[in-house]
Amino acid sequence: MISLLPHSRDSQMDPLDKTILANLYSSMLDPSISPYVRLKARLPISQEFYNSMVSRLIKIGLVEKSDPTKLTFIGRDALNVVLVGGVFDLIHPGHIHTLKAAKAEGDVLVVVVARQSTAQKIKKYRKIYHDEKLRRDLVTSLNFVDLALIGKEGTLYDTVEYVKPNVIALGYDQAHSEKDIAENCKKRNLNVQVIRLSTPIPGSKSSKIKEEMGDSIYGI
Predict the structure, then answer these.
(1) Which residues contact 145 (CB under 8 A, 6 or more apart)?
(2) Three-state DSSP string of the chain
(3) Half-sphere exposure in the Cβ direction for 43 (13 Å, CA)
(4) Please, is 204 exposed, middle or buried when counting C-beta atoms within 10 Å of its C-beta (0-12, 13-18, 19+)?
(5) Matching CATH number, 80-218, of 3.10.20.30, 3.40.50.620, 3.40.630.30, 3.40.50.300
(6) What is the CB neighbour count within 10 angstroms for residue 76?
(7) Where are the domains of the chain?
């Protein structure tokens, strides 16, 4: 007998079903916005239609019957989640290309915005013009980003443990080593693929823009 359940990320699934699962997943990480409100911001669907779709996903085992805001193990396994991290103080063309390329690697793009303290551990004298919440809001405004989160206190891996992505995508100029990240994830029993993204515009860097335009724009 052939199962009708989409039991893995490789299974064929209706795009709307996957969109609803992605919104449920995003709201599990950030409960401040309900799944329906999150989805309605992207698609003009009624609450009644949304409820009927979720009911069907419950019946096929992708959403919890006891809590229709949560995915089952099978529902989570149907999504390929990509995580990208960065400071995102100034959004520029390099960011847009990198984030779009990361989204193409999966179904859900989660962008982790570094806390100021974390960013300055990597580059001690880095100038950061915008606070964490504003930088998160800047990233959230990009319609191909499913969820933007402020990184957790501690290390990168505390945030990775929270998100549990399938893929970590590194920007072409990020200092992190793919091998080191993969090994540290493995130590925490996280099965994550680490990839390095390229860019057609390597000269597009926040540090360069700040150096040339920071004074004129921000008076700093």
Answers:
(1) 99, 103, 109, 111, 139
(2) CCCCCCCCCCCCCCHHHHHHHHHHHHHHHCCCCCHHHHHHCCCCCCHHHHHHHHHHHHHCCCECCCCCCCECHHHHHCCCEEEEEECCCCCCHHHHHHHHHHHCCCCEEEEEECCHHHHHHHCCCCCCCCCHHHHHHHHHCCCCCCEEEECCCCCHHHHHHHHCCCEEEECCCCCCCHHHHHHHHHHCCCCCEEEECCCCCCCCCHHHHHHHHHHHHHCC
(3) 14
(4) middle
(5) 3.40.50.620
(6) 18
(7) 15-76, 80-218
**What tokens does 64 get?**
């919890």
Which residue type sits at 155? T
Structure tokens at 143: 């319609």
Q: How far apart are CA 168 and CA 149, in angstroms?
A: 15
- Rounded-to-integer distance, Cα 63 and Cα 58, Å: 5
Q: Are 176 and 141 in contact (CB under 8 A)?
A: no
For the chain, residues with pLDDT lower than 70 are: 1-11, 118-126, 200-220
Residue 71 one-letter amino acid: L
Paired tokens of 96: 């847009």
